[in-house]
Amino acid sequence: MSDRVAIVGVGMSKFGELWEKSLREITLEAGMYAIFDADVQGKEIDAISIGNMSAGRFTGQEHLGALAVDMGGLGNIPAYSVEAACASGGAAVRQAYMSIKSGEHDVMLVLGCEKMSDVSQSEAMDTISVASDMDWEGMFGATFPALYAFIARRHMMEYGTTDEQMGKVAVKNHYNAQFNPWAQFQRALPLKVVMNSGMLADPIRVLHSSPITDGAAGLVMCSEERAKEFTDNPVFVDASTQATASLALHDRKDICTMDSVVLSSRRALERANLSIEDIDVFELHDSFTISEIVLTEDVGLAKKGEGGKLVDEGITELKGEFPVNTSGGLKARGHPIGATGVAQIVELALQLRGDAEKRQVEGAEKAMAVNIGGTGATSIVHILGR
Amino acid sequence: MSDRVAIVGVGMSKFGELWEKSLREITLEAGMYAIFDADVQGKEIDAISIGNMSAGRFTGQEHLGALAVDMGGLGNIPAYSVEAACASGGAAVRQAYMSIKSGEHDVMLVLGCEKMSDVSQSEAMDTISVASDMDWEGMFGATFPALYAFIARRHMMEYGTTDEQMGKVAVKNHYNAQFNPWAQFQRALPLKVVMNSGMLADPIRVLHSSPITDGAAGLVMCSEERAKEFTDNPVFVDASTQATASLALHDRKDICTMDSVVLSSRRALERANLSIEDIDVFELHDSFTISEIVLTEDVGLAKKGEGGKLVDEGITELKGEFPVNTSGGLKARGHPIGATGVAQIVELALQLRGDAEKRQVEGAEKAMAVNIGGTGATSIVHILGR
């Protein structure tokens, strides 16, 4: 049995509206790139873990595990899909981490995928809503923009967070995405444009929101012993943790705090024997720009209520002290639900390897990904290190 | 880290058309029974693994992990759903097995659930079809009865298997279900009635097929060290294996053999250091009665082509040498997709504990469950022992 788990290969499909490709094509693409990157033989892969939320509704295809083995020509190896709403990708990484630590598998392909643009916008919205508490939220018409609007409005009222601060998160993440060849929106976005974009659910604007995206991401993970066979530059999972908060927002003591994120990030730091200041680069789940503000607080980069200031001070920018979402984040890289948590790990692995090109954070040695589901009912945290 | 994983509690909801209950209610019910049976405190449960195929389509609710933690009042523990089509339940058991073996979790609640009767029959059929290869099978109208009809017809042609033999599997499983208080159909079924039932897809008759079912099943699993805190009568997972075959039926060398079942059952026996004759009681995935016949061959209870004879000889009956589906199987206990693989383990744990009452196989010490997805693209095998 291994104690540490390594990441020895990463791959991505382009993120965007991929009208000309099917779910199976983009998933295969991300997987093949990860396999090529790891320089591993297909026959050495001994299992597949897939993060996906709703292929059954988005594309009319489930049983993605068997499909991926089949399409990849990977023989008879085991495969399964994991679902934890928007944290499905992170959950697939965590399941692979445990599978390898258990000794049951040695070299695994981890995939995350979602094809969201083949249904109408209203069907997409409906499909995403089933990640909320449908009996108590979704059924009454509370979509995710509406639920995050409650969080944002409360945060503004309690702490004076502003429309401008929420806008600046979008500007920052779009800036970063210019340097990410896989991002859906590889262009800068002026603050004025964000602040003049339409209201989705007051105070959440269209350009505070992550888009509907097609995309897939892949990793090759293996035990520490096997890692040296494939690369001289492995990245290690120093900690993998997960925690849950109430599914419905109204059941929380404080809707501006995601207990799941507080608990899982604190535990991850303990396990990795690090403090938050030791982390050099972050991917924090910015489904809406207010989520990034809340998450910077809940992982401990800012005190509660001061996430907006952090943005004003430029601390989370690419050249700031604690860069957040160098990939462009969900906002600008795009948010193909099941792929997101895997894509976060791809970005951080590239940063730690020094392969992030124009968006490279110099000398990054430790990295943290926070992937949440719903309004933070699920939080999955990974700390990576060299 | 543990080497062996124990099952210390089991629970079930009634299986059937549960019009008056919701998915969350039946899932909670199965989980609570398992927790009571294990005599474990809720606070000792440190994670939840859920098997579910299509709650998003059947009931408009995903993110079942967070939902289960929330409904169960289990604090902030991690939870996730696993999907592998009709093998989703077995996959949830296997993920929990690996999670515990990895040392990441100690005492887990495993749930399997599906609420299938809240949509129309045609919508249910459509939802089940997405477990096939939709681009190459489902899209052309090949439903699962149609795909299994290919298998059955070929098996009849190659090996002389008869309508009567397929009917006898239904008769046997209905006989057993009379003694299972959770079964959907607790009544015997005369062979004549089966043989006169309507054709679904020639030669598959209505009464060769498992029904549309609502239901949930639960287990408490833990490391060997913790098991003695909860029970004097633990059951152990001696082996957990999984294998894949092509998703589409037409890609196989021989449609009468499920390579995934052959491989996973052989490996499981090797790991448990047993031969097939050492197994005292079986749960084999009888989504159609022909599946049970094929599975008895592929696990090695009969030579290829002789599964029909095994039924004629009564060897798989409750009082036979190798009882198969003492619970009533998918045919008569019912087949709530994500629950089935967990319910198989519930049945076998009861048999090994000596708690199976009127359907008890005397002195059972070793048991095997085979849970398949699609037409056997996924196969998950568990061997349990005392």
Structure notes:
The structure is a homodimer. Chain A has helices at about 25-40, 55-60, 65-70, 90-100, 120-130, 145-160, 165-175, 190-195, 225-230, 260-270, 290-300, 305-310, 330-335, 335-355; strands at about 5-10, 45-50, 80-85, 105-115, 200, 205, 215-225, 235-245, 280-285, 365-375, 380-385. In chain A, about 40% of the residues lie in helices and about 20% in strands. The longest helix of chain A has 17 residues, at about 335-355. In chain A, helix 1 crosses helix 3 (about 65-70) and helix 7 crosses helix 11. The mean pLDDT of chain A is about 95. Chain A has two domains: about 5-120 and about 215-235, Thiolase/Chalcone synthase (Peroxisomal Thiolase, Chain A, domain 1, 3-Layer(aba) Sandwich), CATH 3.40.47; about 130-210 and about 235-385, Thiolase/Chalcone synthase (Peroxisomal Thiolase, Chain A, domain 1), CATH 3.40.47. In chain A, the strands form two sheets. A nine-stranded mixed beta sheet of chain A has the order 3-2-4-7-1-8-11-10-9, sandwiched between helices. In chain A, strands 5-6 form a two-stranded antiparallel sheet. In chain A, strand 10 (about 365-375) and strand 11 (about 380-385) form a beta hairpin. The first copy, chain A, is globular and about 55 Å long. Chain A is α/β, with parallel strands linked by helices. The two termini of chain A are about 20 Å apart. At the A-B interface, helix 2, helix 3, strand 3, helix 4 and strand 8 of A face helix 2, helix 3, strand 3, helix 4 and strand 8 of B. Strand 3 of chain A pairs antiparallel with strand 3 (about 80-85) of chain B.
